[in-house]
Design a protein that fits this description.
By secondary structure, the protein is of the alpha+beta class. 39% of the residues lie in helices and 20% in strands. Strands 8, 9, 10, 12 and 14 form a five-stranded antiparallel sheet that branches. Strands 13-11-15-16 form a four-stranded antiparallel sheet, with no helix packed on it. Helix 1 crosses helix 13.
């Protein structure tokens, strides 16, 4: 009896979910404003062509990390599905959070248009009072939608730039139009499309069914205790408690688990792609069966536990494979993140192959493109590290501000006879080191260049 009492008194999943929604909302709103050394925790800036990740800025040339981030995202969701079913959908998906804010907070709590425990019954919109409250609810959600749309944009346009841009709306029509378009979609999605987005549009509901196995946690009804409500053709055969075939069947046919479901399904039918694992049905059945001194017939458990009465296996082949894959991807991200270059350098030869001056001085012109990808000003210098007979001319150390580019024409020359070939010009491979004078150990890059030395008959006698 003690175990049953504890089961009845435990905190409903709905309340725990609300706390999770608050936490997720705070994280989503605050994250764009967190910076480390001037770089954001996460920012994919199309304007500046940069990816900020955990305080490190990666430029367009370094976006080789993006495929690994996408793999980490999708494998993480798949791993969560294999273990906890559609936990993402019911507990962290923005679509679900937005619907809860609109339906449970605005319509139910603030305006009293519906009951939280009955999500099937729509208010009578023909009543003038309800219609006016509906308009008020839409206005409240429209304001929140603009905030949500702006918050979404902050992951692509940093908040400091975003707030500056919107002060000059005539110069940033595209940005403001994009925010308003997202907000308009959120209003349509949350107010009119509702959970149909989860059922008919979101592809994840189709994918998740192939990721389930006997050990996946999900909202599951116990046919062994409650009785079989649907036949093999998924046709409902039990409509009230009198229809139950056995006196030992515990289901009261109260339909509480049905009326509370936001996606309008009957969990007693078995696994359905519409189920988002919000566990509202578990709370409803827990409340009803608790009054009878019995544990809930609908539980967050696995098929193995409910139907086979065996312990759920968390550690199994699929979870091990997902864990190994995630560890490898995270490891690769750390390795690649450690190879961050704080200066980018492109070396290109000009159209003139070489020039021979008086005294058999041979020169090659190069165009160097420097980019400071660090967060502070640096002074850059050059040196040739593998050929002492070739020197750098017309280049002086210079300062470059963060995120800025600089083009420099660099002349490499030699007055030595490097090659005595009379038949053809000779390419000589060089390694050029560019470095920051103030931090040569941390900021240093090596680039290959080809110095063209003329055939011997081109030299002046």
């Amino acid at each position: 009896m003690k175990e049953t009492t504890e089961t009845v008194k435990k905190t409903p999943y709905r309340i725990i979910r609300y706390y999770g929604y608050i936490l997720a909302t705070i994280v989503a709103l605050v994250t764009p404003f967190i910076t480390i050394n001037g770089n954001h925790i996460f920012l994919l800036s199309f304007d500046k062509k940069q990816l900020h990740l955990m305080g490190t800025a990666f430029d367009m040339q370094e976006l080789y990390m993006m495929p690994f981030l996408l793999m980490l995202l999708f494998l993480g969701i798949f791993a969560a599905t294999a273990i906890g079913g559609r936990a993402w959908c019911g507990w962290a998906c923005p679509q679900t959070i937005f619907r809860v804010i609109y339906r449970d907070l605005i319509e139910s709590k603030l305006l009293g248009l519906r009951r939280i425990k009955n999500k099937q019954k729509e208010p009578n919109w023909k009543k003038a009072e309800n219609a006016s409250k509906k308009v008020f609810a839409i206005l409240i959600w429209s304001a929140l939608s603009i905030l949500a749309a702006a918050n979404f944009m902050w992951y692509f346009v940093p908040p400091e730039d975003f707030l500056t841009y919107i002060q000059n709306p005539t110069e940033h029509y595209f940005l403001i139009g994009f925010v308003l378009a997202i907000a308009a979609f959120l209003v349509y999605d949350v107010v009119w499309l509702k959970e149909d987005f989860c059922v008919y549009i979101c592809p994840y509901s189709r994918v998740q069914s192939v990721l389930y196995d006997d050990d996946t946690y999900q909202a599951i009804y116990s046919n062994n205790r409650g009785g079989v409500i649907y036949n093999e053709e998924k046709e409902k055969t039990i409509f009230n408690v009198k229809d139950l075939p056995n006196a030992t069947d515990e289901c009261t046919a109260c339909e509480a688990c049905v009326t509370v479901c936001p996606t309008h399904i009957d969990i007693r039918k078995g696994l359905q792609l519409e189920c988002i694992n919000c566990l509202e049905c578990v709370d409803a059945c827990t409340s009803v069966m608790g009054k009878l001194g019995k544990p809930s017939l609908v539980q967050w458990s696995s098929t193995r536990s409910i139907n086979k009465n065996e312990p759920t296996k968390i550690v199994r082949k699929s979870t091990i494979m997902y864990s190994v894959a995630l560890i490898l991807i995270i490891g690769l991200l750390f390795v690649m993140g450690g190879k961050k270059e704080y200066m980018l350098l492109n070396v290109n030869k000009t159209t003139q192959l070489y020039k021979v001056k008086d005294g058999n001085v041979v020169t090659n012109n190069f165009l160097f493109l420097f980019q400071n990808t660090d967060s502070k000003v640096h002074t850059y210098n050059l040196e040739i590290i593998d050929h002492n007979d070739i020197v750098i001319k017309r280049f002086k150390p210079f300062k470059l501000s963060p995120k800025k580019l600089a083009k420099k024409v660099v002349i490499l020359e030699t007055n030595k006879i490097l090659v005595k070939d009379k038949t053809k010009d000779t390419p000589i491979n060089l390694t050029i080191r560019a470095y920051a004078v103030d931090e040569p150990e941390r900021i240093s890059v090596l680039r290959k260049a080809v110095f063209i030395y003329p055939r011997l008959d081109k030299l002046k006698k």
